[in-house]
Amino acid sequence: MPRSQAVARRNRSAREQLAWLLRFAGEDLDEWRPGDWLNAREELKERDLLRGVTGEPSEAALREMQASLCDFLDRIEKRRADDGGSGKGLDYRLPLSGTAIVAADPQDRLLRIAYVPAAKDLAPAILFRLADLLTRIELSRLRRCRECKRFFLATKRQLFDTPQCAARYHTRLFRKKNRRSQIAGSRRVRRTTS
């Protein structure tokens, strides 16, 4: 396979991993059925997100992983808002214990980094992977949907994570605007008839 195709496939894989992690962070795990938990475990394996983790992740481990992801994403969002465009830069400290492995890929002339947690826990490994993936994108693309409040990777001026969220938001605005005009219209009618 030519090197450019290999790089494109790896970049696509990284984008897919990041999109999956952001989607997982926004899921309501209390609504999940047993099949959803199995699918999540399989998707973690398929996307090679379980590197350095031993065993099958339990439901409790997946819940802990989601809590860690949400906390980390919330901290990033809060720090970006606190920065207020001052340009002084932000630092994010991850409380991790383990080994970071940096390897050079001779074909692509790129460095890859992997984290092997000391306790083989899922949450720290996934948190490190998310941080690694976020270093590959422009941070302004990481946004929170105005409607459902889930994180997503925006393209251009995108404000909502799905078309359904955009439709729900605009429908609410339309109804609110029409409700005001109907109330104002009914007041005018009452005044003229009195």
Structural write-up:
The protein has helices spanning 3-25, 34-46, 59-83, 122-134, 163-193, and strands at residues 98-105, 110-117, 142-144, 151-153. It is mainly alpha-helical. It folds into 2 domains: 3-155, Jann2411-like fold, CATH 1.10.3300; 162-194. A hairpin with a 4-residue loop joins strand 1 (98-105) and strand 2 (110-117). Helix 1 (3-25) crosses helix 3. The longest helix has 31 residues, at 163-193. The mean pLDDT is 81.
- Mean pLDDT across the residues is 81
> N- to C-terminal separation?
82 Å
- The neighbouring-strand order within the major sheet is 1-2
Number of domains: 2
- CATH topology category name of the largest domain: Jann2411-like fold
Tertiary shape? elongated
Oligomer: single chain
Key features?
Jann2411-like fold, 194 residues, 2 domains, mainly alpha, elongated
Question: Layout of helices and strands, plus pairs?
Answer:
Elements: H1 3-25, H2 34-46, H3 59-83, E1 98-105, E2 110-117, H4 122-134, E3 142-144, E4 151-153, H5 163-193
Antiparallel strand pairs: 1-2, 3-4
Please outline what is shown here.
With 194 residues, the chain is mainly alpha-helical. It has helices at residues 3-25, 34-46, 59-83, 122-134, 163-193, and strands spanning 98-105, 110-117, 142-144, 151-153.
